[in-house]
Design a protein that fits this description.
The chain is α+β, with helices and mostly antiparallel strands. It is about 25% helix and about 40% strand. Strands 1-7-6-5-4-3-2 form a 7-stranded antiparallel beta sheet, covered by helices on one side.
Length: about 160
């Protein structure tokens, strides 16, 4: 199975801590992620996803493999759509940050492989980040203080390269 990588970033007019706090409210993902129907947090480390992948609805679990408040969140899927990634939050000023996303995925079906060739997922990720920016800038003041502030130390076999971002 061939793994592909998408890297995207966006600057947001909120502090890095606000962007991080909004991102850690995983149940909000359907508000800005195209095709995501539901994300349910099962515990500090585990999420359950329901989303449209390659034209069909799929469900899978994901494990958070590392989480450092205001800095980074890394994850990998457990079953279902094969993916792993890391999102990092970079302070640019007291009121501005850059959010960087690295997503590793493995297109499996013919439809997913054709979509990959056409850049469908890359455009979807760029759109998701743009909607995250709009969502966070509009609601960050009210949602930005509600994120989870715990830390999850990295696992040695996390599957996400630490040399990125």
């Amino acid at each position: 199975m061939t793994t592909k990588t998408i890297e995207q970033s966006i600057e947001i007019e909120v502090p890095a801590s606000t962007a991080y706090n909004v991102w850690t409210q995983f149940e909000l993902f359907p508000h800005f992620m195209e095709g995501v129907h539901e994300v349910r947090q099962k515990d500090d480390r585990h999420l359950h996803w329901c989303a449209e992948v390659g034209g069909k609805v799929e469900e899978w679990d994901a494990e958070i493999t590392e989480q450092i408040p205001d800095k980074r969140i890394a994850w990998r899927s457990q079953g279902g759509a094969t993916n792993a990634g890391v999102v990092t939050f970079h302070r640019l000023s007291d009121a501005r940050c850059r959010v960087m996303l690295q997503l590793e995925y493995a297109p499996e079906t013919v439809g997913e492989k054709i979509g990959d060739i056409l850049g469908v997922l890359s455009r979807r990720v760029a759109g998701d980040l743009k909607r995250f920016k709009e969502f966070t800038e509009a609601r960050g003041a009210t949602l930005g203080s509600q994120g989870w502030r715990g830390e999850i130390p990295a696992k040695p076999d996390a599957g996400v390269r630490r040399d990125r971002f």
